[in-house]
Design a protein that fits this description.
The protein has 254 residues and is α/β, with parallel strands linked by helices. 22% of the residues lie in helices and 20% in strands. It has seven helices and eleven strands. Helix 1 packs parallel to helix 4 (98-105).
Length: 254
Amino acid sequence: MKKRPQKQFDWLLESPIAHRGLHDDKTEENSLEAFKAAADKGYGIELDVHLLKDGKLAVFHDFNLKRICGVGKRIENLTSEELKNYPMKKDGQKIPLLEEVFEAVDGRVPVLIEIKSLSFFNRRLEKILLETVEKYKGKNIVAIQSFNVFSVKYLIKHGAQYPIGQLYSTPNFIIITFKNDKLVFKGFNPPDFIAYDVRKLPEKLLHKDKPAQDFPILIWTVNSNNARIKATNFGNNIIFENIDPEEKNDKQSR
């Protein structure tokens, strides 16, 4: 496999990344308040984007509003105006647009964007995302990732100015395997970094020195002390939630 030229994006690896912002029992995930809270503490933020019916990008994880808003509607079937009618159950906030998140974060911390797309062929979301990021004052500290290998392929070609990551949890259209404690990528479109599910890390790696890797590795979602030990023994940075990432002796599993 021919590796891509290495980009410089130390900023993505230097500070823990808040998974869907700093949310808790009172503040909803992927909300403006969660992102502001993370930025105020100097943490990078991870967020998810969907393409709405009117071409706007909504920051939301699920494909359906049921879990967060209590309404069984597919998010891609709504316009940005219609979305305002469905506040989040936990705190009444509305689902933000990506441009609103950018305005709130204001270039203060890195932003890691996950593309939520199941399409093999339609790359309209990716195109609009790149156009939106290009207008952002903090675009020099934006990275993009996806589980969808077709999204990653498009972004590698058309978004080369940004670090592009391949998300991995269960086998899909790529092959990511371990060989001699090293993460090996055997796909056709090598990314700039890999975002790996902490639950899939082999336990044996916890008792060895951190192995050298071909790619920087982000570990998600780190939500307990055990997960943090795994992640720091293997990866270059963590995507966390429900823990204080700077509390070294947190033994509470959440």
